[in-house]
Amino acid sequence: MTLTLPESLRRVLPAARWESVTHGESGAGVWRSQRFVVKVQERGGSPVSTLLQERERLRWFRGRVPVPAVVGYEVTDTHEYLAMTRLPGIPMSDPDALLHPGRVTDLLARALRELHALPVRECPFNMTLPVTLRLAREQVEAGRVDEADFDDERQGWSAAQVWKELVRTRPTQEDVVVTHGDPCLPNLILNGAYVEGFIDVGRAGLADRHADLALTYRSLIRNIDQEHAERFLDLYGREFVDGGKLAYYRLLDELF
Questions:
Q1: Which class is domain 7-85?
Q2: Where, by residue number, does Mg(2+) bind (predicted)?
Q3: Is 126 annotated as a binding residue?
């Protein structure tokens, strides 16, 4: 598959050799050159995260936490296109990054603490449970949930079963902070001993901090091991961690 850009983006992006990026689970096609990244997503698919939503979040985050700069956005009858600068470095899930699991774990905890410390009152994006549960229900009703991709403990479940369990066990309170929405290891870029930035921020917004903690914890178990996942929670701050909410937000993620 090759990248075909609309005319408006060809005018702002220099001619380059584009390579397809296969890691990550954003649902969009991703291409990169030496200096830029282009994401392409079909219109009319999942309402969970459009590239327009990602563009707006990148613009808001810029200057608050490290993220790519938006270069251009275009929409056609069939697709959305988002062009941005390429952050130097490698994803935290890269084998070279995982040669230093302690460093990855420490930097993850620090990066999320800094993100979650942003002023809530300044964030215009609402991803609290009333919003995300409505989106989850729409996912189930539209048949867009990949039940084969459920975590091991829910293999054999239906999307409707997950939805019923979400309703039954919904937390009574939310500890709302500014969240990334999908802070798995592929979505943080490591450059030497530093976090160069966050990518794939289309689901970012105000939500319970466990919406992030649960997915980072699971990603560390998958990419490194349980010991480093527990270390992450220690470094982030056990006083903020609720085990029941960690389980709840992993359950919620099954529908996205």
A1: alpha beta
A2: 187, 200
A3: no
